[in-house]
Amino acid sequence: MSDAILLLTRPLAQSRAFAARFGGLDCVICPLLRIVPTLPVLPERKYAGLIFTSVNGVLTAAELLQLSGRTAWCVGDRTAAAARAAQMEAHSAGGSAEDLVALIRARAAAPLLHLRGEHSQGDVAARLNSAGTETDEAIIYQQRAELLTAAARATLAGQRKVILPLFSARTARILSERAGTIHAPVQVIAISDAVAAAWARPGVIVAATPDAGAMERAIRSQLS
Questions:
Q1: Range of 162's domain?
Q2: What is the pLDDT of residues 129-142, one digit of tens each?
């Protein structure tokens, strides 16, 4: 087994689920974002479908709305799986916001409603409206920044190799700003070019595709 440490910064439930893929590997979980549902005023319209760009969007929407039987247009497979678990008819773009916009333009009926967090990548609703697909959006949760834990700081100050996967640009910015001087040998793996750009430090590998499977493969390539 590798002597590396896997440092995970996603919200707690997602970090735990991802850590389970790497049985036997030392993992330090330090969520840098806490998901806090809001109480949005949703537009009073009948929508042909809902748009989700994160699992958190689906999980939060399930607390606010009746989702069963509705159509969901999802950025990736994990988001689509969450939508199916909520008994929605889910379609996955299998990738980025660009892929999602292209899928919706090709196949979706309008109007649509994008249910998202306060911080969201890709300007999905604006791009769809510009392309003639009528789309509203509503912020249904906040992603509140959290402090680094003592365990995370000790990991970054140590001597063991640290593998640091980053799944969002906001997390990358928060950690880059708050980590201070990093003494440990760290290999950052970003899920996309946008996330890599948000990490204001050198030494980043970008996953081959923007999904959890590609992130897992990139991590495993660093364990030998």
A1: 5-32+147-220
A2: 999 999 999 999 99
